[in-house]
Amino acid sequence: MLSEIDDPEEKAQAQLTVAQLAEKPTAKTLRETLKKYIDKGLDQYIYETHLEGNLPKFLYFDEFYQMEGQVNFETLKKRLSDKQLLDSDRPMLGLIELARINLDQLVVAQNTLELVSRIEGAGNYLSRRILDYWSQNRHIQLRFDLRPGRAGDPPGFQNGTNLWANVYDSAHWVTVRVGTRSRGFIWFFSFLAWFSQQQKSGKPIILLLDEPGIFLHASAQGDLLRFMEKELKGQHQVIYTTHSPFMIDPRHFERVRIVRDRSVEEERPLPKDQEGTKVFSDPLQADPGSLFPLQGALAYDITQTLFIGPNSLIIEGVSDLIYLQTISAIL
Fold this sequence. Notes:
Blueprint: H1 8-21, H2 25-40, H3 42-51, E1 57-61, E2 70-72, H4 73-81, H5 89-98, H6 103-106, H7 112-133, E3 140-148, E4 161-169, E5 174-177, H8 183-198, E6 205-210, H9 218-232, E7 237-241, E8 258-261, E9 277-280, H10 288-305, H11 318-330
């Protein structure tokens, strides 16, 4: 102990030695950093510090995430608190969040009139969004009926607060429930309600879609491709599966990946490196069945040009075109 040293010079030398042995700030910082590595492991530390905050958000949407068109908010709130949400609840929750309201407000019956304007605002927003990308009918408008349950309502909707989603068709002057519309329209509407809210996070999204065009008319599939190209390109990445030629953009075949499992095609056992599902970007490695959607997309695109003029001539190659143009110029 320094207090036990009586000689002043010896005590001063001891104090100098202690000061030199004291941990410097840089050494302390290094020790604390190394401790984090040791406690968590280097891989975990790098992930939490540098990668986790920059990772994109993965979102999956399939045919089961379809809004039913009506919901009882007390029942929905219970499923949410019990973590037992139905697939059809997710686009409805997107609609509720889009209207900037919460379930606690909605379950109070006397407050529903104050919330109608917000629900209508969300409906108007979705109506505009649908009309931007739904070319099959330009005369529809989404309307919502927010009211307490009544004795004549279906079972499960006679008590509490209910939301009924309707579609008004101004061309035919008729209103129908969203749930009675075509499955393609319900899918498109549910997807817009769900994804419009997901976009508000501001984070990059990798969107996974399972057969998105399965219930859509060919023109509606083109509308969906247009939505992806205009709304998602440059901000989010979309990965979807399809067997439809109308869900393939013939201008961007480089985006297509062909999935093939040769083990179900061959009668003889395959080498280990050829077993299982393989993903190809080269069409020459695909089987005829896998090529069909690509061929269909290309054929459809080509046939569209045949109707531009009254007389069309199909030739085999570019050289034929040059010959014909040269001869035509001479004649």
